[in-house]
Design goal:
The chain has about 200 residues and is of the alpha+beta class. The protein has helices spanning about 5-20, 25, 40-45, 50-55, 115-140, 175-185, 190-195, and strands spanning about 65-70, 90-95, 95-110, 145-160, 165-175.
């Protein structure tokens, strides 16, 4: 019979292996079997290898602060949903099929130094722009979805005379598929801004 310390070590080792090599980590993508909508399920199945490749590429990009794909925007990394790194999926949004990219950016911006527009601009340039650079490597205009959307959570700090506060903001951006595929290749800031203004 094993001693309590041996049982504890075996249990911890098993849990560690499950966390490192369990289905959520090794598959790293929403499974088509989890999707109820037949059209979304078919898209997920058709593009599964691309989604897995993007899911593996995104963490390798260089960010000013850590960025992690996460299926549930703004979730606590210590919670069960916080470790669900399957942040790419096809969803219905305003009668369009959108490739949704969801994640948490570990930046904490000072609300007294940066306006809301400046904060969202930083997050867009730090995170979304880089992902838009790789999207054309995986998808084309012929793929059967309408848009690429982003939900990126980040932190905002504010200091007052009697308190300090840190909360979350979420940047949501949806670009048509054509604009998403063109955005990173646009040669000037004004052309990129024109794509965002549509």
């Amino acid at each position: 019979m094993k001693s309590n310390s041996q049982s504890t070590v075996a249990f911890v080792a098993t849990c560690t292996l499950l966390l490192l090599f369990g289905p959520a980590r090794s598959f790293a993508q929403v499974s088509p079997t989890e999707i109820l909508n037949p059209r979304l399920k078919a898209l997920e199945q058709a593009h599964l290898s691309k989604l897995i490749a993007i899911n593996r590429t995104v963490p390798l990009l260089t960010y000013s602060f850590p960025f992690l794909l996460n299926r549930y925007v703004g979730s606590d990394p210590k919670s069960q949903t916080g470790v669900d790194g399957r942040g790419l999926e096809f969803v219905n949004f305003h009668d369009q099929i959108v490739l949704k990219v969801t994640g948490n950016y570990q930046a904490a911006f000072d609300a007294d130094r940066l306006t809301p527009n400046q904060r969202s601009g930083r997050v867009f340039n730090d995170v979304i722009y880089q992902i838009l650079e790789i999207v054309p490597s995986y998808f084309s205009a012929a793929d059967e979805f309408d848009a690429v959307g982003f939900e990126i959570c980040y932190h905002v700090r504010r200091k007052a005379a009697h308190y300090e506060y840190e909360g979350k903001e979420i940047l949501v951006a949806v670009l048509s598929k054509a604009d998403a595929l063109r955005y990173a290749a646009a040669p000037t800031d004004s052309e990129r801004q024109e794509l965002l203004n549509r």
